[in-house]
Amino acid sequence: MSEVESVEKFRALSPSEFFYRNREIAGFSNPARALYQTVRELVENALDATDTHHILPDVKVVIKSEGGDGSRTLVNSEGSAEEYEGVLYSVQVEDNGIGLPPQHVPRAFGQLLYSSKYVLRQSRGMFGLGAKMAILYGQITTGRPAEVITSQILSKKIHYFKVSIDIANNTPVIHEFSIMDKNNEWHGTVVKIHLIGDWQRSKQKIYDYLKRTAIIAPYANIYFEDPEGNIVMFRRSTEEMPVPPREVKPHPYGVDIELLKRMLADTSAKTLTEFLVKEFQNVGELTALKILEGAGLKPDLKPSELTLNDITELMRSIKASKIRAPSGRHLSFLGEKLIVLGLRETLKPEFAAAVTRKASVYEGHAFIVEAGIAYGDKVPPSDKPLLLRYANKIPLLYDESADVMRKVVDSIEWNRYGVTLPAPLAVLIHICSTKVPYKGVGKEAVADVPEVEKEIELAVREVARKLKSYLSRKAKEYEEAEKAVTIAKYIPDIARSLHTLTDGKFKREELEKELLQLLNKKLTMLKIKSLKEVVIEVS
Ligand code: ADP
Ligand code: MG
User: Fold this and answer.
1) 453: Cβ–Cβ under 8 A, 6 or more apart, which residues?
2) 246-268 burial string, b = 16+ CB within 10 Å, else e?
3) Domain range spanning residue 134?
4) Domain boundary, last residue among 182, 202, 234
5) One domain, residues 484 and 459
6) Confidence of residue 265 (pLDDT cuts 50, 70, 90)
7) Ordered DSSP codes for 302-370
8) Is the CB of 55 within 6 Å of ligand 1?
9) Whose alpha carbon is nearest atom 19 of ligand 1?
10) 443: CA distance to ligand 2 center in Å?
């Protein structure tokens, strides 16, 4: 054995330790980013616990400075020192959601990759990481555990936990636990995390994040208290909520050999036909029989009896069969009305419009793209359209240049839609799916999946056409108004001539009045303000 070989040491890493070492891939790269990401993960969990279950969200976010200069030198698992410069903060997020069953609290907050969202249902969370990454970061920068208070809707109790993560084993550590009687109707969850953060450098992003959340969730009340003592309330402007997402079975085009193997092992179905009909979306008996025929498998074979070769054949036949595409009815999109409302309330534009596209599919996953435009008035002018990116109702704020949405918006020739850049133009894009193709677990950018890219482009162009027709209508009206002003100038002359021509039969003043009225009527018909205002505006 050579010397080099003999010094290699092998061991396995727990998920906690992996993410502890690589926390930047989940968005926890420095104190500023970590403070932002903590707020974000907790707010997303709060919204998932409310609107997904058709509860009008009341979310309260409080960031407090806990004093001290806070710079810490930490020794990481590899024995080297890491400097954290920042201040000690606490982040507390409270919601009026469904709460957690107490037996799941320790693992939901103290074990990475533990989640109730590993099902085919659209939600903001999907990796089973968010809350834990924030707790992990808090724990390594301050040594303090997180606090969780929770109560489910029908529960008569409130549960309190102090929890941290055993990094080497990826298991929860419970420091404190208590149960209180509940004598009111409160239900929901409060999570409090202590961490070293940098408010000055994350302030802008956190405010942007909350504001953009308010745009996409105009039915939510979001209360925010910042460490400087400022209080901001994003009040709900409607009680109308999107239809909650529903859980669905996998679509045959979306499974691979591994998943198929697992499904065959787990199913309670007695025959292959039953298995296909029962476990998949959009497979009826006829389709099932066709798939099995294509794979050369007997319809009444037991699912557990398939060899690896059978499974491969089944997979091949599934991909080759014609199966109705997933419908997207289970997805929770916002809809045109709510998008327009959100844009109007927050950006105060002169014009706002939105479109929600029909569902489309990539790799067996249904997805829906929505797009909105806000133009003019209070929208700040910019060289490139201001882009508001969303995925499953999460605002995406970082890595914009890597996002396919930016790519699409920049590829559009805006002058074809009557806009000359720089312009006061904001474009909102929202993609919802049971599987958003994010570029990383930090959920900040959407990857260039061709089907998704195409839908985004179609959505943006569709809503841009609405802007175009508004702008050309406006230009035409302006032209008419200018004409009217020109004509108005001649009214006194015309009136005088008519007066003379009719040998004074009509009075000059009356003729003048009548002609002006006629002109005004025409302008009203064109939805233009009264002539008096137009004269002032045009001249
Ligand atoms: P993810 O959101 O991706 O599932 P998290 O680590 O953020 O991962 O949360 C883990 C689980 O804890 C969630 O799946 C959910 O079941 C539960 N949870 C977290 N926060 C809340 C909350 N505010 N209300 C109810 N359940 C919550
Ligand atoms: Mg989460």
Assistant:
1) 404, 407, 408
2) eebebbbbbbeeeebeebbeebe
3) 15-234
4) 234
5) no
6) very high
7) -GGG--HHHHHHHHHHHHHS--PPP--TT-----HHHHHHHHHHHH--SEEEEEEPPPEEETTEEEEEE
8) no
9) 45
10) 11
252 and 323 Cβ atoms separated by less than 8 Å: yes
Identify whether residues 294 and 388 lie together within a single domain. no
Domain boundary among 293, 320, 347: 320
Q: Which amino acid is at 503?
A: D
Give the integer Cα–Cα distance in Å for 54 and 50. 6
Per-residue buried b or exposed e for 389-401, using 16+ beta carbons within 10 Å of the residue's own CB: bbbbbbbbbbbee
**What sections of 151-271 are H helices per DSSP?**
199-216, 257-266
Half-sphere exposure of 295 (CA within 13 A, CB side): 28
Closest listed ligand to the CA of 55: 1
Integer Cα distance of 395 and 392 in angstroms: 9
Cα–Cα nearest to 189, from 149, 159, 144: 149
CA 332/CA 321 separation, integer angstroms: 29
Look up the CATH number of the domain holding residue 346: 3.30.230.10
Based on the fold, state whether residues 167 and 230 are members of the same structural domain. Answer: yes
73 bridge partner residues: 83
- How far apart CA 346 and CA 367 sit, in angstroms, is 26
Q: Looking at the predicted structure, is the pLDDT value of residue 181 above 70? A: yes
CA-to-CA separations, 452 to 87, 170, 253, 323, in angstroms, rounded: 41, 36, 16, 20
5-30 residue pLDDT tens = 678 889 999 999 999 999 988 999 99
- The residue written with tokens 């279950």 in the block is 53
Residues 270, 308, single domain; the answer is yes
Q: Which residue puts its alpha carbon closest to atom 2 of ligand 1? A: 125
Are 193 and 214 found together in one domain?
yes
The Cα 110–Cα 133 span in angstroms is: 10
Rg (alpha carbons) of the chain, rounded to whole number: 30
pTM: 0.87
Average pLDDT over residues 444-472: 97
Task: Spell out the residues 6+ positions from residue 83 whose beta carbon is closer than 8 angstroms to its own.
Answer: 71, 72, 73
Same domain, 461 and 480: no
What is the 135 CA–ligand 1 centroid distance (Å)?
A: 12
